[in-house]
Amino acid sequence: ERASSEQTVLAKAHLADGIEEITVHSPVIARAARAGQFVRVLPWPDGELIPLTLADWDADAGTICLVVQGVGTSSIEINRMQVGDAFAGIAGPLGRPSEVTAYPADRRVVFTAGGLGLPPVYPILREHLRAGNHVTLIAGFRSAELLFWTADDERVAGLQREFGDLLEVVYTTNDGTFGVEGFVTTPLEAMLEAAAAGTGPAVAEVVAIGPPVMMRAVSDLTRRFGVRTVASLNSIMVDATGMCGACMVPVTIDGKPIRKHACIDGPEIDAHIIDWDKFLPRFGQFRTQEMRSRVRHGL
Ligand code: FES
């Protein structure tokens, strides 16, 4: 009985060190979910609500898929949950769904996914393929042992079977142990240069999801080439209603500094208006509290 109740973990897969894929029974969210949206999970009743972008869902099976990296107290606890365990609560889907434009066949949409940015990229990329767009996925990892969801994996292979030539996948590792040696910006720069020189297809849009420094590097690069770029921000969130300010994103519009909030204005924000110098330090702000919490919980 327990196994079929809401918010119960139905399956788990170990993807890489500290990274688990968790399938949860959540039929209401699975029916309503759209690409780019996130949920907030409460692992135990008095726990901390943490935002997680949906990696996948299945409306017929009534399941959602979350990929979690154990970095703080809550995420480490979530990754320790076993099949049959239930979350205290899952709210969602939240955030604005991705805007998917259908482009002509001679223009590509390029996704840059860094490490744990790959699962949230997956549903958005699938939406672009369904719209008929030519898509390049550049998936970057630090090293070969951290790879998951590669071309051998059923998820990526399934997209390749379904969409064939519409999808091109490039892997990078910082140490060159798999795919192209370098960062996601290495093949991206080559593509943008080829497009500018007229020797490669035009790039219509770039989507960046991953560590903030990676998204900034992508944004700086695409700005040089004047290519529209969207960053999907998995910010620190507290209330997810736009009231608390925890997920504030400093942006500049028409020369004026403005505050956007990843929870209600995002998670996707035009990367070229983000004030990265002010934004990046925000990711370190809870580190001390997080460490204290981990010590307190013996993790
Ligand atoms: Fe509080 Fe966005 S999480 S304003």
Polypeptide structure, described:
With 299 residues, this protein is α/β, with parallel strands linked by helices. The chain folds into two domains: 2-94, Translation factors (Elongation Factor Tu (Ef-tu), domain 3, Beta Barrel); 107-232, Nucleotide-binding domain of ferredoxin-NADP reductase (FNR) module (Rossmann fold). Helices cover 26% and strands 31% of the residues. The protein is built from eight helices and 16 strands. It has helices spanning 27-32, 73-80, 118-130, 154-163, 185-197, 212-225, 276-279, 287-296; strands at 9-16, 19-25, 38-42, 50-53, 56-58, 63-69, 89-94, 107-114, 134-141, 167-173, 180-181, 202-209, 229-232, 248-253, 256-261, 268-270. The strands form four sheets. It has a seven-stranded mixed β-sheet with strand order 11-10-9-8-12-13-16, with helices on both faces. Strand 1 and strand 2 (19-25) form a beta hairpin. The longest helix is centred in the last third of the chain and has 14 residues, at 212-225. 41% of the residues are buried. The model has no long low-confidence stretch (mean pLDDT 89). Bound molecules: FE2/S2 (inorganic) cluster (FES). The site of FE2/S2 (inorganic) cluster has 12 residues, from loops.
Task: Describe the secondary structure blueprint for this structure.
Layout (H helix, E strand, L loop, with lengths): L8 E8 L2 E7 L1 H6 L5 E5 L7 E4 L2 E3 L4 E7 L3 H8 L8 E6 L12 E8 L3 H13 L3 E8 L12 H10 L3 E7 L6 E2 L3 H13 L4 E8 L2 H14 L3 E4 L15 E6 L2 E6 L6 E3 L5 H4 L7 H10 L3
Parallel strand pairs: 8-9, 8-12, 9-10, 10-11, 12-13
Antiparallel strand pairs: 1-2, 2-6, 3-4, 3-7, 5-6, 13-16, 14-15
The structure holds FE2/S2 (inorganic) cluster.
